[in-house]
Specification:
Blueprint lengths: L3 H18 L1 H10 L5 E6 L6 H4 L7 E6 L15 H12 L4 E7 L3 H6 L13 H5 L3 H11 L4 H20 L3 H8 L4 E8 L4 E5 L6 E5 L8
Parallel strand pairs: 1-2, 1-3, 3-4
Antiparallel strand pairs: 4-5, 5-6
Helix pairs in contact: 1-2, 7-8
The structure holds zinc ion.
Zinc ion (ZN) binds next to helix 5.
Length: about 220
């Protein structure tokens, strides 16, 4: 568990690594600007930092994190569309080649959607309507996995929510156009915290299969 002083100490280590040993990387990023090829939509959960999970460097990933790594549907009109703004910037300005929606095991947002976490003292004012984006995933998981234990139901809902987000991603006209032009690919990932495994969503079947991890430690 870290406190704020530890974070400042951590910054010193970061500075030593990237402004010392790897100075050329920082200089290039400063001089040329960022040019990430990959955007990741990840959960705010402290255990699923996409930069750490994928062992990336500064400049590699353009990341937006929110509760339960949800992509809202495309909407015109007002509102503070933070996630949509990040997707727009990544696809239309940075011209990323990949967008990855990375779900994960033991997601608190999904547990709230399933009613496993109940809010008290008025909390949930923002979380509940936000999680309604994944209502279709909840219904699907309950319909198909209600007879199983709570863990299986949660996994099914977490993975179904990734599929909902992938569908919503394609509701953005500029995403659809970039995919149709072969300039952009979208991916659904699922990080299994319990077993240290990364799973990928098959675009044809919607089922998740092992990408890396597994019994031999590589999944290859
Ligand atoms: Zn989460």
């Amino acid at each position: 568990m870290k406190n704020v002083e530890d974070l400042v100490t951590g910054f010193r280590r970061f500075r030593s690594a990237y402004y010392g040993e790897r100075r050329e990387l920082v200089e290039r990023l400063v001089r040329q600007g960022q040019a990430p090829k990959v955007m990741v939509v990840a959960c705010s959960d402290s255990r699923v930092d996409p930069d750490i999970v994928t062992d990336c460097d500064p400049g590699d990933l353009f990341v937006v994190r929110n509760v339960a790594n949800l992509v809202p549907p495309y909407e015109e009109g007002g509102g503070y569309h933070g996630t949509s703004a990040a997707i727009e910037f990544a696809v239309r300005c940075l011209h990323v080649e990949h967008v990855i929606v990375m779900g994960h095991a033991r997601c608190g947002g999904i547990r709230a959607l399933l009613g496993d976490i109940r809010f008290e003292d008025g909390a949930g004012q923002f979380i509940t309507p936000w999680m309604s984006i994944a209502e279709q995933a909840r219904r699907e998981a309950v319909a198909e996995h209600a007879a199983e234990n709570a863990e299986s139901l949660a996994v099914a809902c977490e993975q179904a929510a990734v599929r909902v987000s992938l569908g919503n991603l394609m509701s953005f006209p500029f995403v659809r156009a970039a995919v149709a032009a072969g300039q952009l690919r979208v991916h659904g990932w699922y990080f299994d915290l319990d077993h240290g495994e990364l799973h990928g969503c098959d675009p044809d079947t919607g089922r998740f299969g092992l990408l890396a991890g597994g019994a031999d430690g590589t999944g290859e």
